[in-house]
Amino acid sequence: MLITSPETIQEVLVSAVRAIGARNGYASARLEAEILLAHTLNISRALLLARLGDAIADKDAAQFAGMVARRAQGEPLAYIVGHQEFYGLDFYVDRRVLIPRHETEHVVEFALRALKKIPHLEPVIVDAGTGSGAIALALARNTSRAKIIATDISPDALAVAKLNSARLHLTERVEFCQTDLLEGIAAPIDILTANLPYIPLERFERLPREIRRYEPRLALMAGLDGLSVIRRLLKQVEAHMARSGFIFLEISEEQGDAARELVTALLPRAQVEIYRDLEGLDRVVEIRFEE
User: Fold this and answer.
1) 272-281 pLDDT, tens per residue?
2) Where along the chain do its domains lie?
3) Does the pLDDT at position 172 exceed 90?
4) b/e for 193-219, b at 16 or more Cβ within 10 A?
C-alpha cells in the first residue's frame, strides 16, 4: 500500500483513490475511499469532507491503509466496514453471509402488502434461507402482528442473523431455526419469503470478482439452471402452507419464464405473477393460494 507517511486527510484520500482505482476502476473509487476513511475515523462523510486539511494520526492512517489494500484486492466494501443498509436498517455482515442487496427490498414490500390481506390475528411468516436475517428482521421492524420464523441450514449464517436481531432489538420478534428450508416447521405458513441461491453453475465464472471470491458460494449457487434450491422449496410448500397464503421468491433477471413454468408444474392450483425491479428486470415471483 502506497500510504507511508501521510500528512492530511486529503492526501491519504488521494493516495487511496489511486490504489483502489488502479485495481477496481475509478468510477466509485473516491466514494469508497471516503466511506473507508470516515469509518476509520468514526465520523460521517460530511464531517470528513469538512476536515480535508486536518492531519491524520499514524495509527488511523495505518488502519485505513489496511482497509484500502483489502478493497484494492476486490473485497466488498460491506465486509470491510462490517455493515450494510437494508430497508432502512443497519445490518452487520461478514463473509459468513451474502451481502443484502437493495433489490431484495421488493420481497419485504410485497410481503407487507400481502400481510394486510391476511384476516386472522397472528399470521405466520417464514423467511427460508434467512442469511443475515435481512428480510425477516425488516418485516419484524415493520409489523407487530405476525409470528416470524427465520430458517437457515448454515449455523454460521444463523449466528450473524441472531447478532443482527440483538443489534436491532428484535430478539423477541423473530424465532430462528437451523433447518433445511421448511423442514420441521409445524405452524401453517401464511406468508413465505425467500432469497435463495439462484446462480446457475455456468454463470459462476462470469460473476464480478468481488462476489466470486468473497461471498459464500452456498448462498449463491443453485445447480445447472439456478433453480435447484427453489425447486426443493416448492416441493415442501404444500405440506406447510396455509390454504390461503402467499409466497415471495427473489429470482435472477433471466429466470422469470422458467420460474413460472416450475411453479405451474409443481403447484398447479397456485396463481403466479412475476414482478420486475426498478431496472425493469424480472426479480420477484409471487405465488398465491386461494381457497
Assistant:
1) 999 999 999 9
2) 9-73, 83-289
3) yes
4) bbbbbbbbeeeeeeeeebbeebbbebb
